[in-house]
Amino acid sequence: MKLFDSHAHYNDEKFNQDREEILNQVYEEGIARLVCAGYNLESSKKAIEIAQSHDFVYATVGISPNDIPNFENEQIDIKDFFFQDVFLEQLEQIKELAKKEKVVAIGEIGLDYYWNKENKEEQKFSFMKQIEVANQLQLPIVIHTREAVYDTLEILKHEICPVKKGVFHCCPLNLDLIKEGLKLDFYISFAGAITFKNAKNAQEAIKLVPMERILIETDSPYLAPEPKRGTRNDSRNVKYMAQKIADVKGISLEQVVETTYQNACKIFEIKY
Ligand SMILES: [Zn+2]
Question: If one looks up domain 3-267 in CATH, what number appears?
Fold first, then answer.
């Protein structure tokens, strides 16, 4: 079986002790492709480094809503000035990184009002600016959205930068978000949450998305699925997401593995 983990963070410090070992292991155990996602400048550079030294790894570069510059404690008038200045400088660097070999998307980018409620305007600004960069470079975007469904959709529908394609990474099991995302032609990437026994809407969400729009991911090292919950996650666990989807859709595991692999190759423009 050849699996594609569409989103993992082998650039995370939790893999500092055994990064090479674990990458070799997941490859040997059937993870034929994976995307290592950046979330700030440093992790984006690291993702590229890992991708360029492993044939089966690809990278995304971007600044997540939880990693944008924060000047919360400054006075309001200088805060805006600092923010724009520092962010736009980082954006230039992201743009340069995005042109490097094996970078397949801008991400993860988006809005997160769960962890950060105080800087919504800055989050929206940085999300839109990074979408612009993705459009200029004709790259898809990888979206992180948490407790910000309405604002996320509003930006995605925004006509200032209409050419967008991308993925809802670790997609929240919010049925309205999924319906609207599908209308916009986005891919829905399911992570460990669909395997949790107390997950609300997991079945409905899976049923809602046609097979040709589904990706699977681990978001390693976080969010390990059942039955590995609470342990450090790695790409080998993506099989549990595939199995859950197969069960809900009443199709074979092989079919889910094959289709999600093809879908990921398509959106990230990776040779099949
Ligand atoms: Zn992530």
Answer: 3.20.20.140
